[in-house]
Structure formats: structure tokens, C-alpha cells
């Protein structure tokens, strides 16, 4: 039995006994079920563990800084074998197992592991832990949990074998409680993985011969394990970038426009007078600045698909809330306030006395408001342009189209009064007054450029002197050079840093696909075989 | 899971039972081990692949601007090179406008009475009794060549206050509300005449606070006799926006049954026969100003009027003038000031060097930034070259 288990086969023990015929009738119904289970081990032995490119995927996930744990219902030897074949366990690692039962027994073993892990700190060998289900049940108790998790989190990888579905979800929960800032992902393909999938932050279910239970309970359903790589490195990375930019930009564009009202309030006795015509103001987020967040959120790409997949190190940039945190948010908001101050300041200075027309006529309150609003729309559209990493045709449409839509609306709204009741009375004749005024066009040229000078200068400085890895790769790609050298240099740099595993709050776990197949699909194959 | 999938495959169960009497079924044939494929015996169901278009697969061709120092400094230089001349042009245009402003808040009449104190008296600003005619001697240092405009300027007057701005009824101004129809509530307290109970036309605080100083300007030519004062001819036609005249203000047919605003000395019909369309002073006043210190166009000088012969053919010559102001508007209550402004105009409007100066400053800033980024770029490429040389010696590819 042990030899079979070490060889990676699932084992089943069969025994014989003499039973009375009456007893046999009761058992006959059970026999059908047993017969089908019997043959599953034959089937299973010929399923290669390399199915689906799992080792390569796991290697890439590790390169990306994702911590991987394995939770399986198989035997200890089988699990260790799987670990080696998936390259989770490697020759440079020291592997220890945690088995046993009884609180004191497990406690002493955990203490021994603690000193072992502490001893390995600083050396070139990395610790790996294999925990058996029964020991896990004891180690997961509140008295031992903290020490146990401390050992686990210092290990390179943890393999839990012989775990029940409930224990799988328990492990996820322990990790979530121990590291509140970590994001956990669980991937499994059987119904016994469902509790684990539901407990983790992101649950991925694999569809296929095992059935659809895991997929039905998951956030993402994949057909093969190797698709996880694309899910994380391409779609995950892109989504993080996109959601971040959409949120920040949406707040920013509203601040840029509406803080100008605050500056105006300082000049209007804080009476609450609005300097914009009400319909124009109301349609700001719908028509005049609504398309640019869409273009950013749906089509912007932080890095090309090929490079995301080829260089897992690029994924590290998305970990640790680096791109969206309080500081980033506050800076964007301050930027909006700064832009609004520039816009309002330029307009107020230019329209100081109000006599801005060659024919001597004067402008008024709503003229100031319309000018400010126009400048805000243009500034915000150009800012969206600067924030784009990849300008597709739709980005052009969104940016220039927004500005064109606004100017079209000005031309339209200037002629609607008095045919639509009392609406648009404030902007009568503004098409000629704005578009026919040299001052207006000079302001449109000046204020957005002045406001975005800081943005452009800072971006250029950062991309020259403080490039992130991703930006370097993109630059290489654009210049048609091979980015590998950049990544080699970067990987080496990172290896020489003393980054303790505990300092990195991120890791993920998964259960390997081949070993957790349930018997269900084997019945189908059996049936097909039987039919033949 | 076994039981669940058994329940789902009842057909399979039947087959199992059919074979039960013959003993355990023979082991199935082993298919070829095939890494990566997970669909062996069963024919794969029809694929539901999503569309392979560039749009659906997020492979749209894209321009990826690099935005490094190298690509950005030409832009800064370009902007700087464009903005400085533009600023110079704007500044020149603004400086070409000649302007003269005369603060007459505290002016006195011929007998030395301060009109400001007079104007505070209720009798005065309602009935203009007794009138206070300011006599100001002003001097134009430069010729005002070209079309000359006369403005009045007020300070500390918040025409942009919310309650002031909403205190109007646009339908009344269009002439759409007959005298019997009540004005908007926004107009109160200038909505209904407390004495007669009739509606005020035009209602609201904006109309009620209409600027009512009147001016006369006399030129004392040095060549003519000392007592010869030529009145500067001007008109109020064209001081308001054409779109206002045509589309926001209409003619009121019948003013009977309505009252004039309490602060008005003349009724709307007395002010203009075409009220309100022809009352351009009112139209200009009703366009509320953006900031508390503002100017409003009052008169446009008629340079070719026969009454003044050729004196003002080319503009207003420099020299001594007398400004007679029928001082009616009280500004003391809000600590404001009143001024009379004579100015020419240019293609960029009145005299306002702000835009030109900002352009020139921004242009210079961009040139400085461009130079800075050239330095940054050179520095960065030097660093890159030296670090590349370092890495050649020490790089050892280490893969996890």
C-alpha cells in the first residue's frame, strides 16, 4: 500500500469475509456503488499529473510572488509526491511533516517546528511543511493556532494532506484571520473544494469531468488549471489598474469642476450662487465627461497580454495596495483642487472687469461660469488622455468626442430659450459670445495646458528616473527591444534584498487539480466503457 | 459527491444494475496518456468560444505614449516657443487700449454739498429732490483714438449674490405676462406694490436696483475759447447684447394696472417707448456681473455726430473735460464706490494685461521645464549606460 502511495497512486484496501445470504441481500445494493469505486483507481493511475501544464503555471505563480499552499484529501506520501512533481517542493528545500494526534503531542511538535524554522532563517535552505489532516485538526485549535500559523507563514510552501472539506475552509479562515491584509484565492475542482472556495476572497472552480459543483460555487469558473495564470496576470492585473484609474479619475473630474464653485463662492459672498447653467451642470457626468472613464475602464491596458504572461514578476506591482491607497487618493484629490484653482484663477483674471468683447459690451455671471465649465471639460478630458496607458481608437473617440459634445451642447443650448419654458435663459447667445471671443479661445489653450503641466512634468520625471518594472518592460516593448534583460536585472536585484516572507502580506493557496478528482466522472467513463 | 453524481446519471445506474449479475465489469481500456487534454472518450460538446475579434479579445491596436523626459521636453519647448509670442501679442493688444477711470463717489455739487450724503436721504433717491449735480473736472492725459466707450464701474456690489440673481421674472421681461398675472415669488419683496396692491413690472431686486446716475461729458478745447465746452455725443444704442435684445427682452403692450419698481424715478414707459426691448440700460443692468467689482457699458461715443463737428472724429483727444453727474445712486450703504470710465477697445476687449502676462509667464516656465528635462534625460541615459555596464559583470540569472 505504501509503495503504491509513494508512486502517486491512490490506494484502496479490499477485504473478504463470509457472510450469510440474508446479510448479502442488504449489501447487494451497496455492491453497485463499490464496484464502480473499485475501478476508479485503475483509471486514475494513468492520469498524468502533468495534465494541464500545472507545474509551469505554479512556477509562474511563485515568480509572481504568490504563495501557494496545497490542500488535498490524499495520503501523505501521495501529497508529497504531487508536491515534487508540481515543483512546489524542490531540492533546495527542507521538508518536514507534522503528524500526530492529541493536543500535547501536536503542541510539542509545533514547538519543534518553530525552532526548526527559526534555525533556517538566514540560511539558503527554505522550509516547507507537510501537515496531516489529524494533526491539522489539533493544531488549528485556538490554543495552538497562533504558533502553528506562525510556522506555516514562514514556510515556503505548506501542503496539507488528508484534509476534509471543512478543514480546507478552516485553513483558509485561519489564514485570513492571521493576515487581514492578505488576499486569498482558492482553486479546486471537486465538490469537496466548495467550502474552501467560498471561504476565500476569490474562489476559482474548475469545470470538467469532476462535475460542476466547484464551478457553481465559485467566483470564476475555469476549464483548466493553467488558465489561472491568465486570470491573474492579465485579467487580474488589468482589472486592478482599470478599477483604480476609474475610481480616481471619477472623483478627480468632479472635484475639478465643483471646487471652482468654491472659489467663486469666495467672490460671491458665500451666498451659494451657482455660476453654471443648471442643465449643463447636470449633464457633466453623463455626457461631457462620461465617456472617458468608460474608455479607461474597459480598454486601457497597463501592459500587453504577451508581456503579462511572459513575465510573472510584473504581477508583483499589483500586490500590497500599491496603486490604490489613501495616499494615492488624497494626491489625486489635491490635484483636482489645484486644477480647479488654476482654471478659476485664469478665468477670473481674464474676465476681471467684464469688458472682454471688441464691441465694448460686457460679460456677466453666467459667462464666467460657462468659460470655467468649458475649461474644466477640456482639462479633464486631457487629463484622461495623460492617464491612458494605451490609446485605442475608442479612447480618441471618448476624449475628443467629449469635448466636441460639450461644444455642440453649448451651441445648442444657446438657442433654446424661450422655446423650452424658462430653461436655458442664462445662456442665450452664448454660442457667439463664447466661440466668437478671442479671449475664450486663448483661455481654452492656456488653462488646461497650465494645469496639466505639473501632471505631465511629474509623469515624465517619474518615468525617466523612477520607472516601475512594468513601465520599463512597456518601454522596451515599444522600442522593440527584448525586455528580458530588464527583468533579469530586476530579478537579481530582488533576490539580493532581504525580504522576509513575513513582511510580504500576500499569499494564495490552491489545491492541485489532478489529485483531487472525485470519483464521479470516473463513473461516466466506466459507463461509456461498459457500453462498449 | 459520488451519490450526487449518481443521482444525476440515472441512465448510468441502470447499466450498472444490468451488469451486476455478471460480476464486476471488466477494466476499461486505457487511453493514451495525453498531457493537457481532458476530453478523451466523449466527443467534446459544441464549443462556445467567444468571438475572436480584436474588440472582444482586448487586442485593439493602441498608441502607447512613452511620456519620458525624452518625449516630453520637445513638447515643453514647443509650448514655450508658442506661448511667449502669444502672450506678447495679447499684452500688446491690451496695452494698446487706453483707459481713464474717474472715481466720483465723493464728488460735490457746485455749492460744495457732498452728493454722497445727499443720496442717503430717502427723499432723495426716491424723488431726486433736491438734485445733486456733480461737477468734476477731469483730465485725459492721452488721446483715446478709435471707438471710445463710456462705462460706469461699481465696487463691492455683489450682483452675483444668490438671492439677488434669482430675484427676477424673465417672462415679464419678455413681455409675456400681462399686468394681471402675478410675478414669480422669487421677486419678493419687490413683487407687489404695498400701496396699490398692483404687481410690480419689472419685478425683482435686480430691476429695482437699476443704476440711475446720468452723465454728461464736455470737452474744453484748448484752441477754442475758454468757455466753449463741446458736449461729447454718445448713444445708448448697442450697449446691450443683440441676443438679449432680440430674445430675452420683449415689448410690453400694456403697463396699466402695474407699478414701477419702488426705486425707479421714471416708469418703464417713460424710460423707453419700446420697453423693455428698447431700454438698453436696463438690459445691460439685468445681465448680472460675475464679480463684486464690475463695469457696465453705459454709452458708445458717436464720433461722426454732426453736433460735435469734427472734434471727436478720431476719438477723444487728450485734454480737459468736465463730467456732470446727476448723482442718484446711493452706494454708501454697502461701502461701495462709483467710477466713470472712458476707454477704447481692441480685438481682445478692454484693457486687461492679465492674459498676456500669464501667457508669457507660462511660456517661460515651459522653456525652463524643457531645459530641465533635457538635463534629466541626459543624466538618466548616463545612469542607464553605467548601470548596464555594471550589470554585465554581476548579473547571474536566478529563477525561482
Structural summary, described in words:
The complex is a heterodimer of chains A (532) and B (400). Chain A folds into two domains: 176 residues, Rossmann fold (3-Layer(aba) Sandwich); 236 residues, no CATH class. The relative contact order of chain A is 0.12. In chain A, the strands form two sheets. Chain A has a four-stranded parallel sheet with strand order 1-4-3-2, sandwiched between helices. In chain A, strands 5-6-7 form a three-stranded parallel sheet. Chain A has 532 residues and is α/β, with parallel strands linked by helices. Chain B is an alpha+beta fold and 400 residues long. Chain B folds into two domains: 58 residues; 244 residues, no CATH class. Chain B is 32% helix and 15% strand. Chain B contains twelve helices and 13 strands. In chain B, the strands form four sheets. Chain B has a five-stranded antiparallel sheet. In chain B, helix 3 runs antiparallel to helix 12. The two termini of chain B are 37 Å apart. Classes of the chains: A alpha/beta (532), B alpha+beta (400). At the A-B interface, helix 2, helix 3, helix 11, helix 16 and helix 17 of A face helix 1, helix 2, helix 3, strand 4 and helix 6 of B.
Protein topology:
The complex is a heterodimer of chains A (532) and B (400).
Chain A lengths: L1 H5 L14 H25 L8 H10 L5 E3 L4 H10 L7 E6 L4 H18 L5 E7 H7 L2 H13 L2 E5 L3 H14 L6 E4 L5 H6 L2 E5 L6 H5 L2 E3 L4 H41 L10 H5 L1 H5 L2 H9 L5 H6 L15 H25 L14 H23 L5 H21 L16 H6 L2 H28 L3 H10 L5 H13 L23 H12 L1
Parallel strand pairs in A: 1-4, 2-3, 3-4, 5-6, 6-7
Chain B lengths: L1 H7 L1 H11 L48 H27 L3 E5 L11 H6 L1 H6 L5 E8 L3 E2 L3 E6 L7 H4 L4 H5 L24 E2 L4 H4 L5 E7 L8 E3 L2 E2 L6 H7 L9 E2 L8 H4 L8 H7 L7 E8 L13 E2 L2 E8 L11 E6 L10 H41 L6
Parallel strand pairs in B: 5-9
Antiparallel strand pairs in B: 1-13, 2-12, 3-11, 4-10, 4-13, 6-7, 6-12, 8-10
Helix pairs in contact in B: 3-12
Keywords (chain B): Membrane, Transmembrane, Transmembrane helix
GO cellular component, one term (chain B): Golgi apparatus
Pfam families (chain B): CDC50
Amino acid at each position: 500500500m505504501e509503495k503504491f502511495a509513494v508512486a502517486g497512486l491512490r490506494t484502496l484496501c479490499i477485504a473478504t469475509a463470509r457472510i450469510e445470504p440474508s446479510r448479502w441481500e442488504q449489501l447487494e445494493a451497496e455492491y453497485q456503488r463499490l464496484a464502480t469505486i473499485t475501478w476508479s483507481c485503475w483509471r486514475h493511475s494513468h492520469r498524468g499529473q502533468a495534465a494541464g501544464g500545472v507545474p509551469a503555471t505554479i512556477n509562474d505563480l511563485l515568480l509572481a510572488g504568490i504563495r501557494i499552499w496545497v490542500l488535498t484529501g490524499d495520503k501523505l506520501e501521495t501529497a508529497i509526491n504531487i508536491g515534487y512533481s508540481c515543483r512546489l517542493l524542490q531540492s533546495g528545500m527542507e521538508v518536514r511533516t507534522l503528524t500526530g494526534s492529541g493536543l500535547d503531542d501536536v503542541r510539542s511538535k509545533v514547538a519543534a517546528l518553530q525552532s526548526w524554522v527559526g534555525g533556517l532563517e538566514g540560511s539558503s535552505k527554505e522550509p516547507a511543511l507537510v501537515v496531516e489532516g489529524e494533526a491539522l485538526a489539533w493544531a488549528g485549535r485556538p490554543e495552538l493556532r497562533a504558533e502553528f500559523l506562525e510556522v506555516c507563514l514562514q514556510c515556503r510552501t505548506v501542503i496539507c494532506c488528508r484534509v476534509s472539506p471543512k478543514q480546507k475552509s478552516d485553513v483558509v479562515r485561519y489564514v485570513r484571520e492571521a493576515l487581514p491584509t492578505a488576499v486569498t484565492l482558492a482553486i479546486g475542482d471537486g465538490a469537496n473544494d466548495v467550502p474552501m472556495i467560498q471561504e476565500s476572497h476569490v474562489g476559482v472552480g474548475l469545470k470538467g469531468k469532476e462535475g460542476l459543483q466547484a464551478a457553481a460555487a465559485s467566483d470564476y469558473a475555469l476549464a483548466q488549471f493553467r488558465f489561472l495564470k491568465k486570470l491573474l496576470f492579465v485579467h487580474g492585473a488589468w482589472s486592478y489598474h482599470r478599477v483604480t484609474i476609474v475610481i480616481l479619475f471619477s472623483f478627480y473630474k468632479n472635484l475639478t469642476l465643483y471646487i471652482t464653485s468654491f472659489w467663486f463662492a469666495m467672490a460671491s459672498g458665500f451666498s451659494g450662487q451657482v455660476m453654471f447653467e443648471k442643465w449643463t451642470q447636470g449633464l457633466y457626468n453623463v455626457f461631457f465627461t462620461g465617456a472617458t472613464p468608460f474608455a479607461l475602464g474597459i480598454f486601457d491596458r497597463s501592459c500587453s497580454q504577451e508581456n503579462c504572461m511572459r513575465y510573472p514578476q510584473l504581477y508583483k506591482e499589483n500586490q500590497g495596495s500599491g496603486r490604490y491607497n489613501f495616499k494615492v487618493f488624497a494626491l489625486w484629490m489635491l490635484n483636482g483642487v489645484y486644477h480647479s484653482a488654476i482654471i478659476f484663477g485664469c478665468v477670473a483674471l481674464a474676465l476681471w472687469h467684464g469688458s472682454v468683447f471688441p464691441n465694448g459690451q460686457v460679460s456677466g455671471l453666467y459667462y464666467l461660469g460657462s468659460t470655467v465649465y468649458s475649461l474644466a471639460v477640456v482639462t479633464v478630458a486631457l487629463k484622461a488622455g495623460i492617464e491612458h496607458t494605451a490609446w485605442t481608437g475608442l479612447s480618441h473617440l471618448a476624449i475628443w468626442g467629449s469635448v466636441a459634445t460639450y461644444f455642440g451642447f453649448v451651441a445648442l443650448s444657446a438657442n433654446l430659450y424661450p422655446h423650452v419654458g424658462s430653461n436655458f435663459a442664462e445662456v442665450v447667445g452664448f454660442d457667439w459670445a463664447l466661440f466668437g471671443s478671442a479671449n475664450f479661445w486663448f483661455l481654452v489653450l492656456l488653462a488646461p495646458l497650465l494645469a496639466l503641466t505639473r501632471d505631465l512634468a511629474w509623469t515624465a520625471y517619474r518615468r525617466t528616473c523612477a520607472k516601475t518594472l512594468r513601465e520599463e518592460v512597456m518601454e522596451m516593448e515599444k522600442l522593440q527591444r527584448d525586455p528580458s534583460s530588464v527583468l533579469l536585472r530586476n530579478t537579481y536585484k530582488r533576490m539580493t534584498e532581504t525580504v522576509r516572507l513575513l513582511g510580504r502580506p500576500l499569499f494564495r493557496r490552491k489545491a492541485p487539480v489532478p489529485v483531487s478528482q472525485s470519483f464521479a466522472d470516473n463513473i461516466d467513463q466506466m459507463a461509456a466503457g461498459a457500453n462498449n | 459527491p459520488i451519490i450526487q453524481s449518481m443521482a444525476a446519471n440515472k441512465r448510468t445506474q441502470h447499466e450498472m444494475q444490468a451488469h451486476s449479475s455478471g460480476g464486476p465489469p471488466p477494466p476499461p481500456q486505457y487511453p493514451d496518456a495525453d498531457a493537457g487534454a481532458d476530453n478523451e472518450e466523449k466527443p467534446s460538446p459544441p464549443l462556445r468560444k467567444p468571438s475572436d475579434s480584436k474588440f472582444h479579445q482586448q487586442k485593439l491596436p493602441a498608441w502607447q505614449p512613452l511620456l519620458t523626459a525624452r518625449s516630453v521636453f520637445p513638447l515643453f519647448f514647443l509650448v514655450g516657443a508658442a506661448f511667449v509670442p502669444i502672450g506678447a501679442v495679447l499684452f500688446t493688444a491690451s496695452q494698446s487700449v487706453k483707459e481713464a477711470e474717474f472715481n466720483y463717489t465723493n464728488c460735490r455739487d457746485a455749492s460744495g454739498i457732498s452728493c454722497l450724503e445727499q443720496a442717503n436721504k430717502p427723499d432723495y433717491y426716491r424723488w431726486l429732490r433736491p438734485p445733486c449735480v456733480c461737477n468734476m473736472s477731469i483730465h485725459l492725459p492721452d488721446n483715446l483714438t478709435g471707438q471710445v466707450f463710456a462705462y460706469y464701474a461699481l465696487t463691492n456690489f455683489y450682483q452675483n449674490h444668490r438671492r439677488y440673481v434669482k430675484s427676477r421674472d424673465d417672462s415679464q421681461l419678455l413681455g409675456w405676462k400681462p399686468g394681471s398675472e402675478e410675478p414669480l415669488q422669487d421677486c419678493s419683496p419687490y413683487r407687489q406694490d404695498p400701496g396699490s396692491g398692483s404687481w410690480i413690472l419689472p419685478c425683482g431686486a435686480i430691476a429695482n436696483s437699476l443704476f440711475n446716475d446720468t452723465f454728461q461729458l464736455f470737452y474744453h478745447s484748448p484752441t477754442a475759447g475758454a468757455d466753449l465746452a463741446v458736449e461729447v455725443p454718445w448713444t445708448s444704442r448697442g450697449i446691450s447684447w443683440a441676443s438679449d435684445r432680440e430674445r430675452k427682452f420683449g415689448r410690453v403692450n400694456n403697463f396699466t394696472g402695474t407699478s414701477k419698481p419702488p426705486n425707479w424715478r421714471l416708469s418703464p414707459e417713460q424710460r423707453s417707448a419700446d420697453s423693455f426691448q428698447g431700454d438698453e440700460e436696463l438690459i445691460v443692468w439685468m445681465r448680472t456681473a460675475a464679480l463684486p467689482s464690475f463695469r457696465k457699458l453705459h454709452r458708445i461715443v458717436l464720433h461722426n455726430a454732426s453736433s460735435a463737428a469734427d472734434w471727436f472724429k478720431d476719438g477723444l483727444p487728450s485734454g480737459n473735460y468736465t463730467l456732470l453727474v446727476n448723482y442718484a445712486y446711493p452706494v454708501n450703504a454697502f461701502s461701495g464706490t462709483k467710477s466713470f470710465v472712458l476707454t477704447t477697445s481692441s480685438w481682445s476687449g478692454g484693457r486687461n494685461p492679465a492674459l498676456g502676462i500669464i501667457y508669457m509667464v507660462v511660456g517661460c516656465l515651459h522653456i525652463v521645464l524643457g531645459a530641465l528635462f533635457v538635463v534629466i534625460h541626459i543624466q538618466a541615459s548616463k545612469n542607464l549606460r553605467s548601470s548596464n555596464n555594471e550589470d554585465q559583470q554581476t548579473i547571474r540569472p536566478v529563477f525561482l
